[in-house]
Amino acid sequence: MIIMEHVTWYDIFMEIIHKKYPKRKQLIQELMKLLGLEREAVYRRLRREVNFAAQEVAILASAWNISLDEIMGINVGKISFQMRVMNYIEPSEEEIKFLRYLIQSIEYLKHFPTTEFMDICNKLPRKLLAGYENLNKFHLFRWVYQYGPDKESIPFSKISVSEEKLKVSKEYYNAIKQVPNTNFVFDYNIFRYLVNDIKYFVSIYLITEEEKNLIKKDLYDILDYLLEVANKGRYPETNNKVNIYVSQLKIPTGYSYTHTPEVDICYIHVFEKFEIFSFYSEMVTNFISWMQLKKRTSIQISEVDEKSRIEFFTTQKLLIDSL
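Below the sequence we write its predicted structure tokens.
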């Protein structure tokens, strides 16, 4: 961080820009792509012969999650949260580009050993669902049923996910395993809620018996995978650390945070598929502290406490059996 006297917000902004992509060639390519500038125009801005225009600063701040309030030292006694609305059924080209940027950002984090994700969940997190086609499709279907614009209920069979979106989901599922440290705190009823939802949609004939069995197979598969992760305390594909906890108290809302050497972000999960998020340092610090305290009312079932681990997974399998 720049520590000389008379440092301006623009100095800090430029430093953050360079930290996002330490390799100059990659930084130039990303700036050309995001701002629609020629290579020489980007060079001039990086050499500070020309300043980034206000609109260009806004574009970079939005795309790269840079808090302008914080670097400008603005403090009005309010905590700013943002929400990015995403069309997960028919994502636009711009939304697909953003998802790919998100995946690249996650993969970049593997180079920082202290990077950490933590999820407190009352539903199976999308980080995991993304790797299971029918479970992921059910997640989309449930969202459409609850929040979709159509007044008529759309059956599971009518939910169409493009090949490109499926590919991006798979890339996301693989990317999250590159994160060096991950913590999950599950609601003790996390599978019960999901099984009950599936039963409901079967009962109103929006999911057929055949479709239910496809979802059921994915449930068995994800349960087996989580058991393998819990036994090892690591993702088997990357050997990166994973701690799994089961909360002994109900979790009413999903929360998460991302901690990296470059930026910290906290999220509140809303409306099934969206997050409101903040980079505000005081809020993020509180979030991390509060979420870590959640471990006090939870039992760690990864690696340690084999009895609790066996009991948890046996109970979840019985719930899936009941479908």
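Residues 82-321 form one domain.
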